[in-house]
Amino acid sequence: MTQLKVQNPDSYLLEMNGISKSFPGVKALDNVHLKVRPHTVHALMGENGAGKSTLMKCLFGIYQHDEGEIIFNNEKIHFRNPRQALDNGVSMVHQELNQVQERSVMENIWLGRFPMKGIVVDRKKMYNDTKKIFDDLSIDIDPNALVGSLSVSQRQMVEIAKAVSSNAKIIVFDEPTSSLTEVEVKHLFRIIDRLRNDGCGIIYISHKLEEILEISDEVTVLRDGKWVYTGSSKDLDIDKLITLIVGRELTNRFPSRKSKPSDEIILRVENLAGEYMPTVVDASFELRKGEILGVAGLMGSRRTETIETLFGLRKRKGGVIKLKGKQIENNNPREAISNGFALLTEERRETGIFPTLDITFNSIIANIDNYTNKFGILNEKKIAEDTKWVIDTLSVKTPGSKTKIQNLSGGNQQKVIMGRWLLTEPTIMLLDEPTRGIDVGAKYDIYELIIECAEKGNAIIFISSEMPELLGISDRIMVMSNGRVAGIVDAKTTTQEELLRLASKYL
Asked: Which pLDDT score, from 0 to 100, does residue 246 have?
C-alpha cells in the first residue's frame, strides 16, 4: 500500500481516523483514513461498493461508525444525525436527489430551518435569502418555482445552493456533475473554486477521471472498504488512477469489438414528433442489426424525450416507426415491450429500481407474464433460475437474491436493471446514461455487456453525456439539438469538436 503523505498535520480541517463500520454479513469500512485541509478540494475515489458513501454517511450522522474518531476544527465530534452536521458546518450534496418536488425551490433549501416572524414563516426573508445565494452563485432559478418543474441539472444546482446556505466549512459533493452539461460543469467548478478560496474543505466524489485531475488538489482511494492511497493529484494520471481504483491495470478503457453491424436495417424512424412540449420535434434515423448508435447532445437537446416517445412513455404526435420493415405504433410501454423494445431510464433511483424490494423482484418484473400459468400461479423455480442467471451472468455483487436492491452499489443496481431487460429478449435496447454514477471498473463491465448484446444481433441506442465513451463504443453517433437530429456521424472518424458544433446547430 502507498503511504499517506502527511505534509502538515496541524493544518487539517477534518480528520477521519481508523473508521470502521459493519452491517449484517459485511464489513463496509475497515480502518479507513481521510484527512482534508482547508482551501483544498480532496477527491474521494473508489469503485461502487468501495465504501465512499458509507464513510461520508458516517461523517454526516446518517450512520454511526463502530470504531475510529472524527476530528473537525480540532475538536472530536460524533454527529448523531444530519441536522447536527449541518448546524456544525458539515454539508453534503447527495448524488441521489432527495427533494420535495411538490414544494418550492426556496422551501426545499430552508426545509427544517424556515426563517420565522413570530409564529409564521417569513416568506419574504426566505425569498430574499434564497435570491441572494442564487445571485452569489450565478444560478438563474426562480425561488418560487416548484422543484418538480425543474430539470435534473437545475435541481442539482438547488442542492448545491442548499449546501452553501448552511455556511458549511466542509462540503461533500457526491457525483455532482452526473446530470450536468459541459457548460454547467464549468459553472459548478467556478462555484467550487470560490468555496475553496473562502477556506472550505471540499470532499469531491466522482467517477469521471478527467474532472478529478482537473478540479482536485489531493486524492484518497478506497478499495473493498479499506484505505489504499492518499496523495497529490499532481502525482497522478488517468492510468495510475485506474490501477489504484480497480487494483489492476486496464490496458484499454473500452472493450474491443469482434464484429461489425450488419447492413440489415432493423429499425427505421421517420419524422418522429412528440405531443407535449418539451419534446422531440423531428427525428429521423435508421438503426442496423448489431449496431450501437450513440446519441449526443447538450442539455435540452431532447435525447431522453426522443427515446421515451419511441418507447411509448410519451405521446407521439407524428412520425412513423418501422421494425423490420413493418410499421408499429408503440402507443404505450407494454406495447413497446411486446414489440421487442427495452428502456433503461436515466434516473435509476426514481424510475429504474424498486428500492425497497429484493433483487428477485427487480430482475423479473418486466417479464412477469412469462412466470405465470393460465391460473395466474407463479413459477417460483423459473423465477429463481432467471434471477440466478442475472446475478451470475452480470457478476452482480450481492449476499443473495433476497437482498433489497437499495442496499447494492449503483453499479450493481444498474447490472440488475440490465439483466431485467435482457430477460425480455429484446430486439431494440434503449439505454439512457447507463453508466451514470458508476465507477471505472463497473463501467467497463457495462461496456462489455453492451458490446456483447450488439454482437448477438441486438440493436442499441446509447445516450451518454460523456463524449469519450460515445466515441469509445459507438458505431455511429446521432447528435440531437433542440429536439431535432442535427447530424449522424461515424464514431471512428468524428471528433469532439464536430459533435459540439452539431449539438449547437438549432440553438
From this structure: 78
Q: Work out the number of other CB atoms within 10 angstroms of the CB of residue 111.
A: 12
Give the separation between CA 270 and CA 282, rounded to whole angstroms. 8
CA dihedral 303, 306, 308, 314 (to 10 degrees): 130
List pLDDT tens digits, range 58-78: 999 999 999 999 999 899 999
**Residue owning grid cell 409564529:** 119
484, 297 contact by CB (below 8 A): no
Sites in the chain below the pLDDT cut of 70: 1-10, 25, 48, 95-96, 179, 248-251
Kindly report whether the peptide bond that precedes residue 426 is cis, defined as omega within 30 degrees of 0.
no
Q: Which residues contact 378 (CB under 8 A, 6 or more apart)?
A: 371, 372
Cα–Cα distance, 65 to 103 (Å, whole number): 34
What is the pTM for the complete model shown? Answer: 0.66
- Report the chain's C-alpha Rg in angstroms: 24
CA distance 489 to 478: 7
- What are the grid coordinates assigned to 182, written together? 459541459
What is the model's pLDDT at position 251? 60
> Range(s) for CATH 3.40.50.300 in the chain?
9-246, 264-340+426-507
pLDDT of 179 reads 67
State how far the alpha carbon of 305 is from the alpha carbons of 197, 311, 421, in Å: 39, 10, 20
Amino acid found at 295: V
Quote the pLDDT of residue 47.
77
Task: Report the distance separating Cα 292 and Cα 289, nearest Å.
Answer: 9
End-to-end CA distance of the chain: 50
* Homologous superfamily of 264-340+426-507: P-loop containing nucleotide triphosphate hydrolases (3.40.50.300)
Residues 108 and 439: their CA atoms lie apart, in Å, by 30
List, in order, residues 6 or more apart from 75 with CB less than 8 Å away: none
* Contact predicate 441/398, CB 8 Å: no
The phi, psi pair for 453, rounded to 5°, reads -65, -40
Q: 19 and 245 in contact (C-beta within 8 Å)?
A: no
The sheet carrying 476-481 orders its strands as 341-344, 428-432, 459-463, 292-296, 476-481, 484-490
Q: Tell me the CATH number for domain 9-246.
A: 3.40.50.300
- The three cell numbers locating residue 188: 459548478
Cell, residue 227: 484505505
Pairing of the two strands 170-174 and 26-36: unpaired
Residue 373 C-alpha from the chain's centroid = 38
CB-CB contact of 265 with 288 (8 Å): yes
- For cell 426556496, the residue is 106
